Amino acid sequence: MAWLNKDDTFDPDSFHNKVLGIAAELGVHDSGVHHHAMGQLLFTHWGCIRITLAEAICLLPPTRIAWIPPELPHRAEVTGAVGYRSVYLDTAAIPDLPETVEVLEASPLLQAVLERIAMADFSTQWEQGPPANLLAVCLDELHQARSEPTVLPLPRDPRLRHLASQASHTLPPSLKLLADHTGASEKTISRIMRRETGMSYQQWRQQWRLIKAIEMLAEQNSLTTIAAALDFSSDSAFSTFFKSMTGLPPREYMADSGSRTAQR
């Protein structure tokens, strides 16, 4: 394990172990676009991390886990204090891990196991004894973890490419306004979005609102402020939307990812 300061760099590919862990307490931080030969599990105790990919934006809320497959270019941005943990896995030695980026619900057991792995010495032998048991529990919990709706695929069509550049800041327009702006019909836009993102434009816009809401919650904004910024008619309308998307009210979602796990 390595404790990293803000300006430290770490290259997991320079080590020769199938599991590596690091930890840091970060403020504002931008990793820049990079990739590594090992797959990566990212975990935060508090604060959010925005992960930008070539064809998607991924938000990692506190006490959830993001899986980034090996060799995938990505950029991780932190805008506030984050308790950061990262576990790197050699997918050649550890098969059956996801092939795409995912954000996963983390049970209290998985959180505790990842914390132990992140604190392990770089020379730890993971093939036998307690380390092997720890890794086995981690992988079992990962395979059972439920996906979180905080990955937003981006359209590639030139008529909709501007949505990607706006996605970090500006509430996407309604379908009608988007059609007026691009000159494409609402049916054409809907067809493009289905083909390139796997969801309708309305579903895509709602997922964008959810991701932005989580970011604003992590920044301690009030429900009233968030509802107004995301064009909800009231606090209660926003809370109803949030619960329909995540299964939990906004504050409960941010407080403890173990709530739904314990209910199942």
TrEMBL record:
Signal peptide: none annotated. Keywords: DNA-binding, Transcription, Transcription regulation. The keyword DNA-binding applies. PROSITE patterns: HTH_ARAC_FAMILY_2. SUPFAM superfamilies: Homeodomain-like, RmlC-like cupins. The keyword Transcription regulation applies. GO terms for molecular function: DNA-binding transcription factor activity; sequence-specific DNA binding. Residues 157-256 form the HTH araC/xylS-type domain. Gene3D superfamilies: Homeodomain-like. This is AraC family transcriptional regulator. It comes from Photobacterium ganghwense. The lineage of its organism: Bacteria, Pseudomonadati, Pseudomonadota, Gammaproteobacteria, Vibrionales.
